[in-house]
Amino acid sequence: MSNNATLFLVFLTISAFLSSFIEGAQLILVNNCEESIWPGILGGGGQVTPKNGGFHMGSGEETIIDVPDKWSGRIWGRQGCTFDQNGKGSCQTGDCNAGSLTCQGTGGVPPATVVEMTLGSSSSPLHFYDVSLVDGFNLPVSMKPIGGGVGCGVAACEVDLNVCCPSALEVKRDGRVVGCKSACLAMQSAKYCCTGEYANPKACKPTLFANLFKAICPKAYSYAFDDSSSLNKLNESKSLLSSSAAERSSSDMKADCFDPIF
Fold it and tell me: Residue 211's domain is classified under what CATH number?
């Protein structure tokens, strides 16, 4: 399969929907890719992890997941996975739990595009959600509220950043770019990771790489302190989060690309 054909297959991909119901919420995951995806799920500290943290979704499939009130956690898509009958194997990106179908309380290996959320309750329906590129990028993701609500916004990275990934950040499998590292993952320094003396918004500023991510995906977190333009909140007891994927060709994307030098 050619490189461009593979890139086109990931323009429409996994989305997370949120709708309130009594004593909890529903997350509806939809795979709009033309290839399989293996979602990974991780509950926050002390939170449940639905479906043992991972499962398979074929192209066009939809899965509904029930979570309790005030649930927090993250969801990411794994791609290029192969598992045996015991659920052991590996993925090209987003792998977890030493190569297992079920992540079971472990996070994904970056780079991976991550959906993060902290949900409210039926009595206090204030939900926070975002799409983060802090751990890098592997698949386009869109998360959009439907049905009203005050202050609702779209959280998304709807285009294929792998097309524009600077050479220093590329992750390749079989000669094809399957992921794009964050600057933190590539450089492993406090300046790029917003740690140590840089662990505050005044000291940690967006880098050239974060600016590239932001220019192409303005509705996603591009670095650790990108809260003002990327963290969304939904104050509504009945709502739905759905996908809104934008299609752009590889040639369109390349017009926006640049390759910053360290």
Answer: 2.60.110.10
